């Protein structure tokens, strides 16, 4: 296998116009690269990951010679299946996501395998959810900190489900602090952690802490669900264009951007809690119009069980704003159990 790895390493290096010394810096020597390329040495897993990063490929391509097209298409299938989850079609999405997980493992790609497990965990409950989260933690254990951090919100959800909300909040806050401390301020991950923390604190009745995290989370959002869906489609289309032109590195970058948007779209129920927390702070300070805007936006993407309470709160704000007819119509929706989303 080492000779095969060496041949692929040399082919990719030459194709990118790199010398052995340029590929090796700053961690290895040109002599080490030469020994791998000639088959005299078998590279370690760390070396494979390092060379793959330098070359802009997945480690699996070096190890198993997988087609870069196949790897990008796997990521596209993951995004399309996540779309089904967001559309409420979990019945069809679950078996597809399980197949993606198995295929990713076969291709030696822990990241999409772990992400597939997290989508499955997010649409499961009880011990099934806990088991999926544990598998994802194991699968992603060798990934960089922002990727490993993707498991934390769902581990925190498992703890909350078991009544251990305090530990759940501590886990989220610790992960958030560590990412900032260690130099990994990835916006999508910080948004996820801050939105989850705002939601936890709000449900615990700590409005001040909830609002603190809510404000910092909302600064990182890129729009509502419709805007994010449009941006996702755009990146997917660009990815397919790059694939058609055999520009695999560009295709991989586009599909990664699309997945970041998918992650933000899945987060919108927690973002709704951020809007709710900010609305209450605005209401307290006399900013009625700001509170109305936030409550209306929160109602659009909140968990269904939360919509009636948000609608009632919105009605109270309309009443405070001197618009009793609108308030009465909203309260009628709550009493009649009719859909209250615009």
Order of helices and strands: HHHHHHHHHHHHHHHHHHHH
Report the sheet-strand fraction: under 5%
The biggest beta sheet is recorded as: none
Shape: elongated
Low-confidence runs (pLDDT<50, min 5 residues)? none
- Fraction of residues in helix: over 70%
Number of strands: 0
- Compute the average pLDDT: 90
User: Can you count the helices?
Assistant: 20
Look at the helices and sheets and give the structural class: mainly alpha
Radius of gyration: 23 Å
Gap from first CA to last CA = 59 Å
Description of the structure:
There is one protein chain. The protein is elongated, with a radius of gyration of 23 Å. By secondary structure, it is mainly alpha-helical. α12 (165-181) packs antiparallel against α13 (187-204), α18 (288-301) packs antiparallel against α19 and α19 (307-320) packs antiparallel against α20. The chain has 20 helices and no strands.
Provide a compact summary of the structure.
The protein has helices at residues 2-15, 20-24, 30-37, 45-55, 59-64, 68-86, 90-106, 110-122, 126-139, 145-148, 152-161, 165-181, 187-204, 207-218, 225-244, 248-266, 268-284, 288-301, 307-320, 324-336.
Topology, element by element:
Layout: H1 2-15, H2 20-24, H3 30-37, H4 45-55, H5 59-64, H6 68-86, H7 90-106, H8 110-122, H9 126-139, H10 145-148, H11 152-161, H12 165-181, H13 187-204, H14 207-218, H15 225-244, H16 248-266, H17 268-284, H18 288-301, H19 307-320, H20 324-336
Helix pairs in contact: 6-7, 6-16, 7-8, 8-9, 9-11, 11-12, 12-13, 13-14, 13-17, 14-17, 15-16, 17-18, 18-19, 19-20
């Amino acid at each position: 296998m080492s000779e095969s790895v060496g041949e692929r390493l040399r082919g990719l290096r030459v194709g990118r116009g790199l010398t052995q010394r340029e590929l090796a810096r700053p961690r290895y020597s040109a002599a080490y690269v030469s020994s791998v390329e000639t088959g005299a040495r078998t590279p370690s897993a760390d070396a494979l990951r390092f060379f793959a990063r330098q070359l802009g490929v997945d480690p699996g391509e070096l190890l198993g010679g997988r087609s870069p097209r196949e790897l990008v298409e796997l990521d596209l299938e993951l995004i399309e299946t996540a779309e089904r989850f967001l559309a409420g079609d979990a019945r069809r999405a679950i078996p597809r996501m399980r197949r993606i997980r198995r295929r990713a493992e076969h291709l030696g790609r822990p990241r999409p395998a772990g992400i597939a497990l997290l989508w499955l965990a997010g649409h499961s409950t009880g011990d099934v959810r806990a088991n999926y989260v544990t598998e994802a933690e194991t699968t992603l254990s060798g990934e960089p900190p922002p990727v490993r951090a993707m498991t934390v919100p769902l581990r925190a959800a498992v703890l909350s489900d078991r009544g251990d909300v305090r530990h759940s909040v501590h886990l989220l806050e610790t992960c958030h602090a560590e990412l900032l401390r260690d130099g990994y301020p990835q916006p999508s991950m910080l948004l996820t952690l801050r939105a989850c923390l705002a939601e936890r604190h709000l449900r615990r009745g700590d409005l001040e802490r909830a609002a603190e995290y809510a404000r910092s989370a909302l600064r990182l959002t890129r729009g509502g669900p419709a805007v994010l869906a449009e941006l996702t489609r755009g990146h997917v289309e660009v990815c397919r264009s790059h694939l058609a032109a055999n520009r695999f590195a560009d295709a991989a970058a586009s599909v990664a951007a699309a997945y970041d948007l998918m992650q933000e779209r899945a987060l919108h129920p927690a973002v709704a809690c951020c809007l709710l927390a900010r609305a209450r702070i605005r209401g307290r300070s006399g900013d009625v119009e700001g509170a109305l805007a936030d409550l209306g936006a929160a109602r659009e993407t909140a968990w269904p069980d939360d919509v009636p309470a948000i609608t009632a709160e919105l009605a109270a704000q309309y009443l405070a704003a001197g618009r009793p007819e609108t308030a009465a119509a909203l309260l009628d929706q709550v009493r009649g159990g009719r859909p209250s989303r615009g």
